[in-house]
C-alpha cells in the first residue's frame, strides 16, 4: 500500500501517502507484539467496575458494570462473554440482567440451589425482551456494547450478582482473579482486580449521595495480533485516470490449503449453501469466518477509488464489500490514516469522527448501517 497508483504530479505525490492504514471494525494492521495494545487507540480499554451494594448473611450483592472506553472498537453480536476464578469457595446465589452458561455441581446444597457453583463461572448478557423482573439498567442487549465515541448511551452493560460463601466485610471479601473477556472472540487481555475508592451515587433529586460498600476495577485491553495473526481486511486501489486496478494481494488474509480448516473458503455456487454456512452447533458456539473464495481470501475488502483530482482538492469513493457468509457487520466502523484527512471538506452517506491518538494522525469513520451488501462512501478532501 506504500505505492498508490502513481502520477507525475505534485498533487498525486501527496496522495501517495494514501492509506497509512485502513482498518475495518474487527481488523487493524498486523502488530508484531503479543501485548494487548491497539496502536490506533492506545488508551482505549474496557473497564469493569464491581460495586458491592450490600452485605448478606453469607456474602454480598454487587452490581457489575462494563464500560467500553474504546474509541472505535465495539463488541458486536453474539456479544461479550465474561469469566473469572473465585478466590475462595464462593457461589452465585442469583443474578439479574445476566446469567452463567453452566450451573456446575451444586449437589451439596439442599432446598434452594445456587445459580452457579462453578469455581470459574462464565457469564453472558441476557437477550432483549427479557422479563422486566429479570432486568436492571443497561442490561439485556445480547452482549452488544458500542464504543464510547460511537454512542455513549449504549457503551455500558450491567448485571447484578448475589455471591454466597464469601466474606461479609471489606476485610474478609476476596476479589476474583484470572478475568477473561471475549468480545465475542479472542483479543482482550484483562489485568488483575484492583480495589479502589468506593463508587458514590447521587440520587435523582441530587440532594443525597450514597456509596458502595466496596469497589474494585478490572481493565481489559485489546490486541488485533492476539485476536488473529492474519489481517481481516484488505485494500484495493484505483483511479479515474488509469484503467489499472491494484487488487488485494494474493492470500492477503492468509491461505488455507485444507478447506476443512478454520478460515476455509466457499464457492458461491456450492449446493446447499445455507446448510454449509450455518451448520448445527451447540448454542453459543462462535463459528469461524467462512469467506467467499477469492484471490485475497479476506472477510472484508475496502476499495479506494480516486474519482477526481484537482489542484485544490481530490474526491474519493470508498466501497466496502462483505465476503463473510457468516456475519453481518452491524454498527461497523472503518478507520483510515492519511495526511490529508485533516482537510476533509465534505462527506456523503456516513458519519465522521476524528481520532487523535498521536497528534491527529488518524481519522475514524462510523456508520450504523448493516454491511451485508455493497456500500459506497464519498469523501471530498482539500489539499
Automatic annotation (TrEMBL):
Residue ranges constituting the COBRA C-terminal domain according to the UniProt record: 232-359
Q: Does the keyword Lipoprotein apply?
A: yes
Q: Which InterPro entries match?
A: COB_C (IPR056900), COBRA_pln (IPR006918)
Keywords for this protein = Glycoprotein, GPI-anchor, Lipoprotein, Membrane, Signal
From the Swiss-Prot or TrEMBL record, state where the protein is found.
Cell membrane
Name of a matching Pfam family: COB_C
Which branch of life, at top level?
Answer: Eukaryota
Q: Key word Signal present in the record?
A: yes
**Topology versus the membrane, per the UniProt entry?**
Lipid-anchor; GPI-anchor
What the record says about family reads: Belongs to the COBRA family.
Query: Which PANTHER family does the entry mention?
Result: PROTEIN COBRA
Q: What is this protein called?
A: COBRA C-terminal domain-containing protein
Provide the organism lineage as a comma list: Eukaryota, Viridiplantae, Streptophyta, Embryophyta, Tracheophyta
Amino acid at each position: 500500500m506504500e505505492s498508490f497508483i502513481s502520477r507525475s504530479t505534485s498533487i498525486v505525490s501527496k496522495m501517495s501517502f494514501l492509506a497509512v492504514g485502513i482498518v475495518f471494525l474487527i481488523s487493524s494492521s498486523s502488530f508484531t507484539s503479543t501485548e494487548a495494545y491497539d496502536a490506533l487507540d492506545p488508551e482505549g480499554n474496557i473497564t469493569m467496575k464491581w460495586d458491592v451494594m450490600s452485605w448478606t448473611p453469607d456474602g454480598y450483592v454487587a452490581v457489575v458494570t462494563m464500560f467500553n472506553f474504546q474509541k472505535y472498537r465495539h463488541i458486536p453480536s453474539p456479544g461479550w462473554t465474561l469469566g473469572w476464578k473465585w478466590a475462595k469457595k464462593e457461589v452465585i446465589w442469583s443474578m439479574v440482567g445476566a446469567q452463567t452458561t453452566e450451573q456446575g455441581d451444586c449437589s451439596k446444597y439442599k432446598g434452594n440451589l445456587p445459580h452457579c457453583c462453578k469455581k470459574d463461572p462464565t457469564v453472558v448478557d441476557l437477550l432483549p425482551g427479557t422479563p422486566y423482573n429479570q432486568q436492571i439498567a443497561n442490561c439485556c442487549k445480547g452482549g452488544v456494547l458500542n464504543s464510547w465515541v460511537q454512542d455513549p448511551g449504549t457503551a455500558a452493560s450491567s448485571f447484578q450478582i448475589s455471591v454466597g460463601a464469601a466474606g461479609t466485610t471489606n476485610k474478609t471479601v476476596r476479589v476474583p482473579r484470572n478475568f477473561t473477556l471475549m468480545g465475542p472472540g479472542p483479543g482482550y487481555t484483562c489485568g488483575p482486580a484492583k480495589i479502589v475508592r468506593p463508587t458514590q451515587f447521587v440520587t435523582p433529586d441530587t440532594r443525597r449521595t450514597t456509596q458502595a460498600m466496596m469497589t474494585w476495577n478490572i481493565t481489559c485491553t485489546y490486541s488485533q495480533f492476539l485476536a488473529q495473526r492474519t489481517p481481516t481486511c484488505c485494500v484495493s486501489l484505483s483511479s479515474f485516470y488509469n484503467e489499472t486496478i491494484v487488487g488485494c494481494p494474493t492470500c492477503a488474509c492468509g491461505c488455507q490449503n485444507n478447506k476443512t480448516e478454520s478460515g476455509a473458503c466457499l464457492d458461491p455456487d456450492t449446493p446447499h449453501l445455507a446448510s454449509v454456512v450455518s451448520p448445527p452447533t451447540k448454542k453459543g458456539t462462535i463459528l469461524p469466518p467462512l469467506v467467499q473464495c477469492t484471490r485475497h481470501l479476506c472477510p472484508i475488502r475496502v476499495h479506494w477509488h480516486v474519482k477526481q483530482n484537482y489542484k485544490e482538492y481530490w474526491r474519493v469513493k470508498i466501497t466496502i464489500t462483505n465476503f463473510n457468509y457468516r456475519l453481518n457487520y452491524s454498527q461497523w466502523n472503518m478507520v483510515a490514516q492519511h495526511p490529508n484527512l485533516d482537510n476533509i471538506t465534505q462527506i456523503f452517506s456516513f458519519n465522521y469522527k476524528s481520532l487523535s491518538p498521536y497528534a491527529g494522525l488518524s481519522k475514524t469513520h462510523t456508520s450504523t448501517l448493516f454491511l451485508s451488501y455493497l456500500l459506497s462512501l464519498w469523501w471530498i478532501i482539500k489539499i
